Amino acid sequence: MATPRSDPLTLEVVELIGTVVARYYEEYDEAAAAHSLTGAQARVLGLLALEPMPMRRIAQKLKCEPSNVTGIVDRLESRGLVERRPDPADRRVKLAAPTEKGVRTAERLRAALTFAREPLAELSDADRRTLRDLLRRMLAEPGDH
After folding, report:
1. Contact, 103 vs 49, CB < 8 A?
2. Can you name the residues that pair with 85 across neighbouring β-strands?
3. How many helices and strands in the chain, by DSSP H and E?
4. Collapsing DSSP states into helix, strand and coil, what is residue 74?
5. How far is the C-alpha of 50 from the C-alpha of 43, rounded, in Å?
6. How many angstroms from the chain centroid is the CA of residue 97?
7. 90-98 and 82-87 as β-strands: parallel, antiparallel, unpaired?
8. Tens-digit pLDDT profile for residues 15-38
9. pLDDT per position as a tens digit, 91-133
10. Where are the beta strands (DSSP E) in 3-145?
11. Distance CA 113, CA 30 (A)
């Protein structure tokens, strides 16, 4: 395993990533509040709008406890934004899936997230591809290539 680096460049990059993440969550929370949702509820809804998935997978993607996800999905379901349905591949498994209203809400939430759009638009296509590829490499699990 590689030794964590603590040179000034690495520390500056870590600080910049932290600032980007903090701004992203701040804006996500503001967009969510405009729809009377918590940030966590909005993130779950956004994830489910990409594809229905079981609670366990939502918890893995959001790095949180499955019991937390169950509560979030319960609240989204009571608002008519999410429904539980059997997984066609395994009827014993329940998938959380957005309703039509949930899909529309997720689209409005995504449209409200503007913080990174303008700075990213100022980068060339090549720079955005490089940034995307570097972020993918940073997030890759060992063995992914």
Report:
1. yes
2. 95
3. 7, 2
4. helix
5. 11
6. 15
7. antiparallel
8. 999 998 888 888 889 989 999 999
9. 899 999 999 999 999 999 988 888 767 777 888 999 999 999 9
10. 82-87, 90-98
11. 9
